[in-house]
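Entry:
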Amino acid sequence: DCVTIDVEEDDAWSFEWISVSSDMWYQRRVREAVVSTQSTGNSLNMKLLILISALVGFSSAVTYTVRIGTGLVLDWYKISASLILSGEGGEVKTGSLNNPGDDFERGAIDTFTIESDIDIGQLDCVTIDVEEDDAWSFDWISVSSDINPDARYVLNTEFVWMSSDLSEGRNNMELCEPTLV
């Protein structure tokens, strides 16, 4: 990832920051750069090799929307769940999903918003971990983002129960091959 600056005068100069714009606008301070100069005819070509974290903000500030459809079997679940969203661009760990009020009630659809500086790209897999010992079952999980707004769904087609008490269910499950519903 490079920024090329062509200088046509022989005066010395420096800069404090460079901005890059796309659909979203980012400005980052340039803290580390390797500068190489090369004379090309009448102009001086300065090629700045900028560390991705110092300049390229295209993967910054991604907002993910995660929706979870809880099953219809029991009336109440006291469960704490966290997800890992995986894609070609990396993975995002959600931490414990918790909204004000009760989450994961029978038949409910809970919506969680996750901010990350990682754009996973197309969703490949969702890994769910539970941390409480009440058994809980979900029907589906959908994931969308402000960059990929079409929700992708992973389905609990085998109706697996989740619990940190392994006599009641599984404490971890990876679901891959998401679909558009």
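The longest strand covers residues 136-145.
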